[in-house]
Amino acid sequence: MSAAQEESFVSHLVELRDRLIRALLAVLVVFVCLFPWAKELYAFLAQPLLAALPQGGQMIATDVVGVFLVPMKVALMVAFLVALPFVLYQAWAFIAPGLYQHEKQLVLPLVIASVLLFFVGMAFAYYLVFPTVFHFMSSVAPAGVAWMTDIDKYLSFVLTTFMAFGLTFEVPVVVILLVKAGIVDVAKLKEARPYVIVGAFVIAAIFTPPDVISQFMLAVPMCLLYELGIFMAAWFARPRSTEAAAMSDAELEAALDEAEAQHRRLEEK
């Protein structure tokens, strides 16, 4: 590795460190601001379960420090979600200089869409899945059984469900990326529909409670989002016009000329 290449590598590491520090500081600042409302944030997160508990039912804490740590974890999770746009901006500012113009035009919309879809998946789980599942569990509880849960276990269940539904709603983005990368084409995706349907129900059985309702509420959206991904991928994969192709080729040639000029300048130094 030449001295110029080593210097460039070190400068990239320094920039990566600085942007990671900025992202962490942003999360920390938001967490400090949310700290006084940690209990209220947990109460909001627990509301779907509290509304489904029998008369006089309540949640419990089996750990001595659980009543403190669990609300702090919730506040930290919310802080990360609030600071996520700034965190993603830091990541984008780090990788954007190394991308061509047509790559920027593809990556930025997909990143924004993936974040929005993840939030939509979390909202779907909170407002639709949780009330349905918890009321079903409350209705099937045997007589004389006090149905309640530990707050730490409830938080683990919520985070797992949020991740499952958030990632499920990323299916269109994954399908588009697979097609754009040339790994599969739209025809192959259509042929794989039966396998995707079976896989969706298998995944739903793994990441949801053992009841048919919640499994259907994860598997059906996954299948529908897969169809949406196929439609969007077919739209993105449409043949480009001659003018658009010429513009892309011109941009690529200009970028190659610029890279060669930078290489010559480095050699002259």
Number of discrete helical segments: 10
The global form is flat
Number of strands: 0
As a whole number of angstroms, the C-alpha radius of gyration is: 24 Å
Instruction: Please give the largest β-sheet.
Output: none
What fraction, in percent, of the residue positions are helical?
over 70%
Class inferred from helices and paired strands: mainly alpha
Portion of residues in beta strands equals under 5%
Contiguous low-pLDDT stretches (5 residues minimum) are: 240-247
Mean pLDDT: 82
H and E order: HHHHHHHHHH
Calculate the terminal CA-CA distance, rounded to whole Å. Answer: 15 Å
Tell me what the structure shows.
- With 269 residues, this protein is mainly alpha-helical.
- It has ten helices and no strands.
Secondary structure blueprint with pairings:
Layout: H1 3-34, H2 38-52, H3 66-95, H4 101-140, H5 151-168, H6 171-180, H7 186-191, H8 193-207, H9 212-236, H10 242-268
Helix pairs in contact: 1-3, 2-3, 2-4, 4-5, 6-9, 8-9
Short description:
The protein contains ten helices and no strands.
Structural features:
single chain, 269 residues, 10 helices, 81% helix
